């Protein structure tokens, strides 16, 4: 386990090109594997999670040239029904891989049962939310009695379309059902209480699939003839950029600039929250990348931040950034409250419990609620010692807390950052942060 102490910094400044987007990289590899062509994916995210997805594409029989660390991979697909289900797919820490690949597997030709498995954290995450709709479509998908991985998936059963109403917005579940819909008879529709990120829909459309919209639902008429994902370059990950942006908001002097960031509106809810808190953040829109808006973001330390409330409607567009709202709240005037965020309990860790624990460990006044948390701002943060619990976003939250603290924060389990942002500590050094 790696332990790193992040020292307090009076000022951080500079330009960061954050790593490529994790959600888009997973989808690009998987849709390329389903395509009828050789797809060049430029700048895939080099991380543990996306490495697992590339290995899965290979295990499914897709042609793979290059490794996830090569800056470019070429995936030659086997067609929308042409993959060969392997006995096991190790999804490691990647919930996105497990949920999306389940939707793909059910639509393949008869073959072996595939067991989807992962690490201890993934083995605790709920999979009935994908098993139930897939079974309702005619598939055989069996998680453990607790509804967790390992999940057995039998390919080759006839699938039929249906309308699936999600009780909680989830891009992973929506994508799983739509991917199954590619090979189902008739129309498959998904309705979410609040729209989640739409990377899958955009990429399917770019691949020539007619993704329909009606009455607030998104749908596919199957079985589709085929997919042809065009070559693409992956834009920077907003969820990684969020850490550099918040570093800029807390200590940016003169400024922290993040370049080439994906600005899909389904991802950038944090920007609205930062604006409400009075943060000095400016967005410079750039050209579309991979059919998605992108641009640069400049963040500076400004006046005193004001507390805010985040409600359930905002949660899907900033679900992975809510831990950062806790840290911002600890340094703002007033009490910051996050509500309607029960989903945080089933992320890579129980992020309501672990975020509150982390904030308290560094001296903040934070309180756990069933559906979120409340943080009473005290404008300064003493510092302390925290553990990542193997959760990448917790490790990086601890690091930022250290930079903004009075005496520094020691993070145990810093290596977890490699799940989404392997160069995080280097990038923080580049901005002037000091570690020991
Ligand atoms: C993701 C969707 C989100 C997010 C996860 C990645 C995706 O999960 O938390 O890190 O790539 O679709 P849900 O939409 O399932 O909440």
Describe the structure.
The protein starts with a strand and ends in a 6-residue tail after the last helix. It has twelve helices and 23 strands. The chain folds into two domains: 3-20 and 235-431, Enolpyruvate transferase domain (UDP-n-acetylglucosamine1-carboxyvinyl-transferase, Chain), CATH 3.65.10.10; 22-233, UDP-n-acetylglucosamine1-carboxyvinyl-transferase, Chain (Alpha-beta prism), CATH 3.65.10. The model has no long low-confidence stretch (mean pLDDT 97). It is of the alpha/beta class. It has helices at residues 22-33, 48-59, 95-105, 128-136, 171-181, 199-206, 238-251, 269-276, 322-330, 351-361, 392-403, 424-430, and strands spanning 3-6, 12-16, 38-42, 63-65, 72-76, 88-90, 114-117, 140-142, 151-154, 163-165, 186-191, 211-214, 217-222, 232-233, 252-262, 280-285, 294-300, 309-310, 335-338, 365-369, 372-376, 384-387, 409-412. The strands form six sheets. Strands 2-15-17-16 form a four-stranded mixed β-sheet. The site of shikimate-3-phosphate has 10 residues, from helix 5.
Briefly say what this structure is.
The chain is an alpha/beta fold and 436 residues long.
Defining key terms:
12 helices; 2 domains; binds shikimate-3-phosphate; four-stranded mixed beta sheet; about 425 residues; UDP-n-acetylglucosamine1-carboxyvinyl-transferase, Chain; alpha/beta
Structural Rg: 21 Å
* Biggest sheet record: 4 strands, mixed
CATH class of the largest domain: Alpha Beta
The CATH superfamily of the largest domain bears the name: Enolpyruvate transferase domain
Bound molecules: shikimate-3-phosphate
Total of DSSP H or I helical runs spanning 4+ residues: 12
CATH topology of the largest domain: the name is UDP-n-acetylglucosamine1-carboxyvinyl-transferase, Chain
Number of strands: 23
Share in β-strands: 15-25%
Overall body shape: globular
| Total domain units | 2
Poorly predicted runs of 5 or more residues: none
- Corresponding CATH architecture of the largest domain: Alpha-beta prism
